[in-house]
Design brief:
The complex is a heterodimer of chains A (about 300) and B (about 325). Chain A has 14 helices and two strands. Chain A is mainly α and about 300 residues long. Classes of the chains: A mainly alpha (about 300), B mainly alpha (about 325).
């Protein structure tokens, strides 16, 4: 890094400072407020003089804490469980999307086969489908059609193990939500990974093939290691969507499979908002994306430019 | 990294045999690679979309299966077209998308032009700028709802502290407030892409302009912007498509209110389905939204195709000249 930096005038740095303040300010504000008692938030005393407390976090996470917080009589907010649900759903759907997506992207880039153009056009088209559009059909299908008959063999077995009445349906299960997320993210992941796979020199694959590697060996041992940056970018974007999504999860989940965004929205729509606790839950939801941003911003930017510019 | 795959090489006959097997596999290989993706997208994207089109012709209640619902033809679509609430919501959506994209493009490109300099800590700066768009829309909504709060909120408290009259952010100016929040979250997207486009511009053109004595403004206006235009158009279209998907931020901030002033189409679809329990109407509405987005995507697609064709023609012409 022995690059010479240009000298800029002070006004320029003032502008930059202002921009940073504007983009990070609201997040910092939420962070600070999550350590305040409601009295302090509403009280209107100046922002920075207060006694930090983790009480809000205790309230939020009361169902998975090993001790009982003193200020709580009853654990009403089942945030810990939702957090675990979110984690399971986001991680599993990200992993599945990546594996399935990069296989498809590889096929689209490297092979000429019947139906290739159709697939690639469809992929491009379904990228624009908003979650709101999927709401009605997914709700209808998942709770009425994608079901195992309760009298059937597998459905009966599942019902005996987990209980419940009626047919066993995808709605209300982790699997159901994961399936939508994988399908929703696939077009984007395929698109982004294509631009990375194109850059892998075909001669490398040729060499491996001459040495007797089968197509799957070539893919997993030669191509995959070379597109790691693309995989990282795709993983972050997929995780972000699966982790942050609210609408479809709210339609598909039941009491036990609620994710964090649903919980936050439900608490926000109550008449008397407990700002401290809400901010704490918001902060917990924001932490994984913030960590990604801090440690993988280069991958995120590469992914963004690859996805948009090279399309 | 390719070493692991390269180690297997023995006699040439064995190699020949493997090659033959590989050839017969070759035909099937792409299909095996595609199969999982096609399967998942077929059952969880395409089938639901078809199901929705089918359902939009029915008078459909959440308690019924789609087979029990009565077929009503185009009734849902026609009712919607005459429904002032739907029109209002469509109008709000278009206004929202238009203002959001315009402001974000202007601010984002402006910032990119301003910050395209060789300064220390640029990557740290970019990291901080992308923070807003990585955070969950739900959380963005709650942050801004707090800041806009009439009495407790940051903005009104600051205004009050300065002795200025307070503003009824989420009441009278709800749409504007929602637009500001979206601009906060998504301007960085335009900024990053515009910056990437700027930095990949041919240095020679800029150099030539500088030698010819073009001022900074002239360089921006006559060289940088025209050269960036293709990328900017694609970026703007991507952002426009995304602007129609926004839902959570608005849901958390205003729940569509007051009245219908911020009820964008996505929100109306979800309310029609869950509150009014009219799945058929919601499906028809989804179809309208989908058609709108389809047109936009086609536009983007056609544009990139045209762009590529033009670039190819320019290359051809350049080769012929030389």
């Amino acid at each position: 890094m022995d690059q010479a930096y240009d000298k800029q005038n002070p006004a320029f740095y003032a502008v930059i400072a202002l921009l940073v303040f504007m983009s990070v300010g609201p997040v910092l504000l939420m962070f600070v407020n999550s350590f305040k008692l409601d009295v302090d938030i509403i009280g209107g005393t100046s922002g920075l003089i207060f006694l930090p407390t983790i009480q809000n976090y205790e309230t939020a996470l009361c169902d998975i804490l090993w001790y009982e917080p003193e200020h709580l009589d009853f654990c009403s907010l089942k945030f810990g469980g939702a957090f675990i649900n979110s984690l399971i759903i986001a991680l599993v759907s990200t992993a599945l999307t990546l594996v399935i997506g990069c296989m498809a992207a590889y096929a689209l880039v490297r092979f000429r086969f019947m139906g290739r153009d159709t697939v690639s056009l469809t992929t491009l088209m379904v990228r624009m489908v908003p979650p709101a559009v999927l709401l009605v059909p997914v709700f209808g299908l998942w709770s009425n059609e994608f079901c195992l008959d309760r009298d059937g063999l597998i459905g009966g077995a599942i019902r005996d193990v987990f209980g419940g009445r009626g047919d066993v349906c995808l709605a209300g299960t982790h699997t159901g939500i994961i399936l939508v997320y994988v399908a929703m993210n696939l077009p984007f992941v395929i698109w982004i990974l294509q631009s990375f796979i194109v850059q892998v020199p075909p001669s490398l694959e040729e060499a491996a093939r001459v040495d007797g590697a089968g197509p799957f060996q070539v893919f997993f041992l030669v191509v995959l290691p070379l597109i790691k940056p693309g995989l990282a970018a795709a993983a972050i974007f997929t995780f972000r969507i699966a982790w942050n999504e609210y609408l479809l999860a709210s339609a598909l989940s039941d009491r036990d499979t609620k994710t964090v965004p649903i919980l936050i929205v439900n608490n926000m729509s109550e008449f008397n908002v407990e700002w401290g606790v809400i901010m704490a839950t918001g902060m917990l939801l924001a932490i994984p994306p913030i960590i990604f941003t801090l440690f993988a911003s280069r991958q995120i930017i590469t992914g963004m430019t690859a996805g948009a510019v090279k399309g | 990294m390719a070493d692991a795959a390269l180690t297997t090489s023995s006699s040439s006959t064995a190699r020949q045999a493997q090659r033959n097997r590989a050839l017969s596999l070759n035909r099937l290989t792409p299909y095996m690679f595609m199969a999982p993706a096609v399967f998942i997208m077929a059952i969880a994207l395409l089938y639901p979309l078809g199901y929705m089109v089918w359902g939009s012709f029915r008078d459909w209640d959440p308690s019924q299966t789609i087979g029990e619902a009565e077929f009503v033809g185009l009734k849902n679509y026609i009712t919607l077209w005459g429904d002032p609430n739907f029109r209002e919501s469509l109008w709000v959506t278009l206004k929202f998308a238009f203002f959001v994209v315009t402001f974000e493009m202007v601010i984002g490109v402006g910032l990119a032009l301003l910050l395209d300099r060789n300064i220390r800590g640029m990557s740290a700066l970019r990291t901080m700028f992308i923070l807003p768009m990585m955070i969950a829309p739900v959380v963005v909504g709650l942050m801004w709802r707090y800041m806009y709060h009439p009495t407790v909120g940051t903005f009104n408290r600051t205004l009050d502290g300065l002795g200025l009259p307070t503003v009824d952010w989420l009441g009278q100016h709800a749409l504007m407030s929602v637009i500001i929040a979206d601009i906060w979250q998504w301007t960085p997207f335009i900024f990053i892409l515009a910056l990437a486009a700027l930095q990949s511009l041919p240095r020679s053109a800029l150099e030539a302009a500088r030698i010819d004595g073009a001022t900074a403004w002239q360089q921006i206006w006559y060289i940088k912007l025209p050269l960036m235009l293709p990328v900017l158009i694609v970026t703007g279209l991507l952002r426009l498509i995304d602007a129609f998907k926004v839902l959570e931020v608005i849901l958390v901030m205003t729940e569509g209110g007051p009245g219908l002033s911020t009820e964008i189409l996505a929100l109306r679809i979800s309310r029609t389905a869950t509150e009014f329990r009219e799945l058929g109407v919601a499906a028809a509405m989804s179809n309208y939204l989908l058609l709108l987005l389809l047109a936009l995507t086609m536009g983007m697609f056609a544009f990139t195709r045209w762009q590529e064709a033009r670039a190819a023609r320019v290359r051809m012409a350049a080769e012929e000249d030389s």
